[in-house]
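Page 42, continued from yesterday. The earlier attempt failed because a stray header line got pasted into the input along with the sequence. Redoing it now with the clean sequence only.
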Amino acid sequence: MEVDIEIVDIVPSESLSTILRAKGLGGVAWLNQRSAFKLTPVDESRTEIDAEIFSEGMSSLLRVVFMPKVKKIARDSFKSLEERLKQWA
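This time it went through. Structure tokens are written below.
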């Protein structure tokens, strides 16, 4: 699957919004989701992140057959985003 994650909003600075788009199998399987993150400083070296994920659309094939893959993509996406945030901090 081809996956694209775009950071679409960082205002105010303690929030972050992303859009994830995934497409595979020649466009038969696709997913669009929006994620919102609230960043709360815990101390000088740690930040707590609360996340909400909203599905904006999913192909029927994905919904029925590939849901476990979709969950893995979401987990991997969060892990990747976490690593990016650590680099930027």
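Notes: The chain is about 30% helix and 50% strand.
Reminder to self: strip header lines before submitting.
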